[in-house]
């Protein structure tokens, strides 16, 4: 099967301060997530979080079991959250099929041995975005539609951050061990996300940026609050956010991003807010 696996070590704030643009991007940016008929996985040593992209076009793709996991199968000691950011597709988990539409989610619990991905239309292939973390017990698998999501509106047009947050894989919607995922959609005319910025030492996070119009981009801000850095993001690129780092962004247009988290707790509001005027 056509697949790739990359392992990335954790970086300390002291190391990050010394990085130039290319080195920063090499360590934190995840690009080329979605390639036709290929599974791409990146393991971050921050909480052993795995980020993946699966784009079945002309064939059904299996979830691989990288040697690095030292497991009999991928979900032997893991759970995974999946959000489709492409055309309609089907995920088959131990012979049970789930049809997943654009921006719908699926949670698969620990212990599922076989997972397959396929598209309903090769001309409009599904793009399955994966977030996986170690799991200590088994919870039931569950499909989550936008109607099932917990929806929150935040921000305002006056501060250019009017946004809709759709909590898809969170403990108020589905039971999980660690993984939490959701989607934030910026309204037209708004560009700022996650502002005021924050950190949370209890967990790490990954952002996937999407719905970025052609010839536009998002500037993702990271780093310690008093020592920030930035990475320019294109459509369907992800960025790793360590627990010591802020994670915020501003685009040249409105856009959407998927946030995925793992760590010690499932409290969505667990964050240490940084005052905007104190960021450096």
UniProtKB/TrEMBL annotation:
Binding-site residues, Zn(2+): 198, 200, 205, 247
Keywords from the named record: Isomerase, Metal-binding, Zinc
Q: Which reaction does it catalyse?
A: 5-dehydro-4-deoxy-D-glucuronate = 3-deoxy-D-glycero-2,5-hexodiulosonate
Can you tell which superkingdom this protein's organism belongs to? Bacteria
Q: Which organism is it from?
A: Flavobacterium circumlabens
What note does UniProt attach to the cofactor annotation?
Answer: Binds 1 zinc ion per subunit.
Family, per entry: Belongs to the KduI family.
Q: Under which EC number(s) is this enzyme classified?
A: 5.3.1.17
Keyword Glycosyltransferase appears in the UniProt entry: no
The pathway it acts in is: Glycan metabolism; pectin degradation; 2-dehydro-3-deoxy-D-gluconate from pectin: step 4/5
Protein's recorded name? 4-deoxy-L-threo-5-hexosulose-uronate ketol-isomerase
UniProt cross-references to Pfam families, sorted A to Z: KduI
Q: Keyword Magnesium on this protein?
A: no
InterPro entries cross-referenced by the UniProt entry = KduI, KduI/IolB_isomerase, KduI_N, RmlC-like_jellyroll, RmlC_Cupin_sf
GO MF assignments: 4-deoxy-L-threo-5-hexosulose-uronate ketol-isomerase activity; zinc ion binding
- Main function: Catalyzes the isomerization of 5-dehydro-4-deoxy-D-glucuronate to 3-deoxy-D-glycero-2,5-hexodiulosonate.
Question: What's an example GO BP annotation here?
Answer: D-galacturonate catabolic process
Gene (UniProt): kduI
Q: What class of enzyme is it?
A: isomerase
Q: Which cofactor does it need?
A: Zn(2+)
């Amino acid at each position: 099967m056509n697949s790739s696996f990359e392992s990335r070590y954790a970086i300390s704030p002291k190391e990050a301060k010394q990085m130039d643009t290319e080195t920063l991007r090499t360590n934190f940016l995840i690009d080329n997530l979605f390639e036709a008929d290929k599974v791409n996985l990146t393991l971050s040593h921050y909480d052993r979080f795995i980020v993946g992209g699966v784009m079945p076009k002309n064939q059904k793709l299996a979830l691989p079991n990288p040697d690095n996991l030292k497991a009999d199968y991928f979900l032997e000691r893991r759970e995974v959250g999946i959000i489709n950011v492409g055309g309609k597709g089907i995920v088959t988990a131990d012979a049970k099929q789930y049809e997943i539409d654009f921006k719908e989610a699926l949670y698969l619990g620990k212990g599922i041995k076989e997972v397959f991905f396929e598209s309903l239309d090769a001309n409009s292939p599904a793009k399955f975005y994966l977030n996986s973390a170690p799991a200590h017990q088994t919870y039931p698998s569950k499909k989550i539609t936008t109607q099932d999501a917990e929806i929150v509106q935040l921000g305002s047009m006056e501060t250019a951050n009017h946004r809709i947050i759709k909590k898809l894989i969170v403990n108020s919607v589905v039971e999980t061990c660690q993984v939490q995922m959701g989607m934030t959609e910026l309204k037209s005319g708004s560009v700022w996300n996650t502002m005021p910025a924050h950190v949370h030492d209890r967990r790490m996070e990954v952002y996937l940026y999407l719905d970025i119009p052609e010839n536009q981009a998002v500037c993702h801000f990271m780093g310690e609050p008093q020592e920030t850095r930035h990475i320019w993001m294109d459509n369907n690129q992800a960025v790793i956010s360590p627990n010591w780092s802020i994670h915020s962004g501003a685009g040249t247009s409105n856009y959407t991003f998927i946030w995925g988290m793992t760590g010690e707790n499932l409290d969505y509001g667990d964050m240490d807010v940084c005052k905007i005027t104190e960021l450096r």
